[in-house]
Specification:
258 residues; alpha+beta; Jelly Rolls; 10 helices; HTH_AraC; transcription; DNA-binding; DNA-binding transcription factor activity; transcription regulation
């Protein structure tokens, strides 16, 4: 990795609007140090201090202030031999927000800036090694299972799962859940399955079917009413889903379990 432009705590006015429809040449580590609204492709993210993006070369993005002075740290760099293999091995998702829980990356970028603009004869090699260390630090936040501690998303995942089981009939929308967590759909789905061993869509179905079983065995509600309370306005669809899940129809399940 060969850095060619760097900045630390670069400041702009609260009304900053910087649109880069063609991105920039080379990859970029962009660490937001204030509230901001960041566009990546067609998606926009409302982010807080210490949110990082690894942006691909020429990827369209937009930087916007959000009611306060905009501040960021950044490194623009070109890839050299074997860099793709190194970056791919880390599994860090590009062009999506990664929430950091310490200032370590910011301090490392500061060191890179100081060395890059120094007279140090080995500055290119030193910055190159520091950048690899930065990516290892990013990996520990982007892939929290590597840290041996709790994921920064774990509390949110637990809250979402509780809401799903507390209100199975709600119109749960995976893209909306992911957006609310400032994650891509694929990243959210991966985190959810890693945490609970089941895809979120299947967990939603499980919550509805288990609730249906409870209602069928403990209330006098009709099967149609149970269907509606479980988020299925179309009873025939509900009946097919339940039959597949419980291996018997709703009416037969009620008869055999009361």
């Amino acid at each position: 990795m060969k850095a060619y432009m760097l900045g630390w705590h670069s400041k702009h006015s609260a009304d900053l609007y910087k649109d880069r429809p063609n991105g920039i040449h080379g990859m970029q580590i962009l660490l937001i140090r204030s509230k901001a609204r960041i566009g990546m492709g067609s998606k926009f993210y409302n982010v807080d201090d210490n949110t990082l993006f690894v942006i691909e070369s020429c990827y369209p993005h937009t930087l916007c202030g959000d009611g306060e002075e905009y501040v960021d740290d950044w490194i623009r760099f070109d890839l050299e031999d074997e860099d793709n293999e190194f970056l791919n091995s880390l599994g860090i998702e590009h062009n999506v927000p990664i929430k950091l829980d310490t200032d370590t990356v910011s301090e490392m970028i500061k060191m890179c800036v100081e060395i890059f603009y120094s007279e140090n004869s080995e500055k290119d090699a030193t910055v190159r090694y520091l950048m690899k260390a930065i990516f290892m630090q990013i990996k520990s936040c982007a892939n929290p299972e590597d840290r041996g501690g709790r994921s920064q998303y774990e509390n949110e995942l637990e809250s979402i799962r509780k809401q799903i089981y507390d209100d199975p009939s709600a119109n749960w929308n995976i893209p909306q859940i992911a957006q609310d967590m400032n994650l891509s759909v694929s990243h959210f789905q991966r985190l959810y399955k890693q945490r609970y061993g089941i895809p979120c869509t299947k967990d939603i179905l499980t919550s509805r079917m288990e609730y249906a079983k409870q209602l069928l065995t403990t209330t006098e509600l009709s099967a149609v009413e149970v269907s509606e309370k479980c988020g299925y306005p179309d009873y025939s669809h509900f009946s097919k889903v339940f039959q597949k899940y419980a291996c018997e129809s709703p009416s037969k399940y009620r008869k055999n379990n009361r």
